Amino acid sequence: MEISGIITAIVIGIVIGFLGRLLLPGRQSIGVLWTILVGILAALVGTGVVAALGVADTKGIDWIELAIQVALAALGVAGVERLKGRS
Length: 87
Hints:
mainly alpha
């Protein structure tokens, strides 16, 4: 993987992670790094899900892919928050 791919993954992870946090009510007690990691993972898994559903290649903005990625990020942020709350 080239450096541009890594930087792109981080930027997309930031955006997806913070959009996922916006969907959740209240304040989340996880840090920025956890949000970015959850966002990167949600973006990767979301891309796989839309590919499996057959809607990965659309003209223009991939709204379905974005919605799935943000929803997965919201679930991931909620899951990390619960796990951190137990420790």
